[in-house]
Structure formats: structure tokens, C-alpha cells
Amino acid sequence: MKAHELRDLTVAELTTRKKEEEEAVLKLRFNRAIAGQVENPAKYRLHKREIARINTVITEKAGS
Predict the structure, then answer these.
(1) Burial class for 61, CB neighbours closer than 10 Å (0-12, 13-18, 19+)
(2) CATH number of the domain encompassing residue 24
(3) pTM for the whole structure
(4) Total structural domains in the chain?
């Protein structure tokens, strides 16, 4: 999701979305620990970036 699309969401929706992304990262980390490898390691980075975008938008909304 793009940053401008995230700005249209409420803080509660952003928090929920952030939780979902963090769960996805945990699943990827867990699978890597168990299986020793992940089928698509780029997904880890994409989820981390999405969390960073969400945190940025939450901070912007808190300052307004």
C-alpha cells in the first residue's frame, strides 16, 4: 500500500494493519528458523518497509 493510501485510513485502522504486518514478519522469521530458508526472502523486507510507512503516517497524524 502506498503512503498516500495509508493517509486516508484512521489511526485505529493503521494500528490494525501494523499488527497484521508484524504478524507476517514473525511468521517469516519462524519459518526461516524452522526450515532454514524462506521461499521468498524479499517479502521480509517488504513487510518491514510497510511497517515503517505505517509508523510514519501514525506519527504524522499524532502531530496534527
Answers:
(1) middle
(2) 1.10.287.310
(3) 0.88
(4) 1
